[in-house]
């Protein structure tokens, strides 16, 4: 009987000890959880306060106005540093990430009058709208869908140079490597791949550029154009990563769409044809690549032209050509990323500018006979 009581007492003691240990364990878990939670709240709160404070004006009551020069070709990082060094913003990094988060772009070079009392959005608006102290000395407009040779001619005419000299510099490896150091995200080693005709083809964004000095250097002129490409692509980085698109591949596809498109056409449908052809292993067979390979501008491609031996000839080589064949605008870049879902494998541009889409070769040939052969 005593043994039985002794065993019961032993079991009871063990249960009590286990309960005590469980209470201690719960207290330890509670304390650790509380500490972690407090630390997390402190870090988040501190980070929020830090960022919130950095986005406020340096001195809302300041009457000071400073002349700030934003050099041609300045990146967002460079602009941020200039503004911080001159006391216009509190923190260059916060400003840079704010600009990227808001997807702001189109900052213009020039001399600005800015104040420490300005808010971040006001500063950005000033830099985007070009509220500068100097008159525009030079404007260069690059239309969509033109090629590097044409761009060289436009720059040469505006800057009183020979187009052959401009084109030679645009293809100079040292000149290009200097630009790659400034824009490593957009200008990658892909532009020096084998068989590429012009490394900077497709990278000089179509837009109107204003310059505030009489004789900007070629590097200053080209830097602004690549900066614009960098800004435009910056709005699509997440989607590019998702689709495993490099800037080079994206601009190459966009250039094909740009060259094939008319004002009336839905670029997203043209994009779908190219993607559908790649998926089923068909060559892209786009005429502009043949003309680019031949270095000629013609209104109509002949059968004999299709025989040109070139990696750019998409009648003979499957997939994308080695590089862009022209500069593409935002509509073609978006179409490259977001093709329409179709079953089309063919399209045909009529003399009237309409683009007709077909699912089969037979249907395509019927439309060709109706709209092209009879013209």
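^ structure tokens above, recovered residues below v
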């Amino acid at each position: 009987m005593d043994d039985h009581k002794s065993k019961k007492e032993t079991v009871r003691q063990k249960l009590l000890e286990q309960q005590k240990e469980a209470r201690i364990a719960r207290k330890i878990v509670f304390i650790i959880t509380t500490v972690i939670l407090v630390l997390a709240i402190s870090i988040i709160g501190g980070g929020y306060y830090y960022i919130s404070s950095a986005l406020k004006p340096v001195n809302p009551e300041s009457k000071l106005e400073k002349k700030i020069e934003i050099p041609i070709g300045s990146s967002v990082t460079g602009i941020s540093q200039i503004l911080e060094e001159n006391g216009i913003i509190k923190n260059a990094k916060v400003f840079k990430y704010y600009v990227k988060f808001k997807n702001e772009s189109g900052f213009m070079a020039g001399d600005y009058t800015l104040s420490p009392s300005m808010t971040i959005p006001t500063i950005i608006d000033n830099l985007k709208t070009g509220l500068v102290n100097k008159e525009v000395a030079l404007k260069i407009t690059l239309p969509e869908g033109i090629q590097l040779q044409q761009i060289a001619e436009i720059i040469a005419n505006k800057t009183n140079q020979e187009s052959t000299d401009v084109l030679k510099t645009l293809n100079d490896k040292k000149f290009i490597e200097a630009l790659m150091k400034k824009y490593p995200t957009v200008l990658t080693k892909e532009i020096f791949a084998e068989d590429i005709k012009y490394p900077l083809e497709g990278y000089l964004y179509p837009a109107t550029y204003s310059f505030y000095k009489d004789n900007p250097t070629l590097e200053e002129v080209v830097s602004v154009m690549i900066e614009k490409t960098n800004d435009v692509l910056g709005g699509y980085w997440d989607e590019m990563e998702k689709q495993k698109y490099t800037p080079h591949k994206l601009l190459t596809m966009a250039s094909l769409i740009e060259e094939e498109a008319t004002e009336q056409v839905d670029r997203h449908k043209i994009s779908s044809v190219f993607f559908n052809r790649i998926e089923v292993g068909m060559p892209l067979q786009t005429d502009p690549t043949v003309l680019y390979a031949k270095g000629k501008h013609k209104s109509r491609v002949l059968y004999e032209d299709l025989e040109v031996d070139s990696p750019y000839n998409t009648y003979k080589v499957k997939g994308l050509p080695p590089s862009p064949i022209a500069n593409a605008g935002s509509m073609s870049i978006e179409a490259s990323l977001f093709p329409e879902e179709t079953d089309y494998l063919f399209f045909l541009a009529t003399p009237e500018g309409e683009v007709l889409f077909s699912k089969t070769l037979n249907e395509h040939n019927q439309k060709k006979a109706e709209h092209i052969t009879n013209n």
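The two ends are 117 Å apart (CA to CA).
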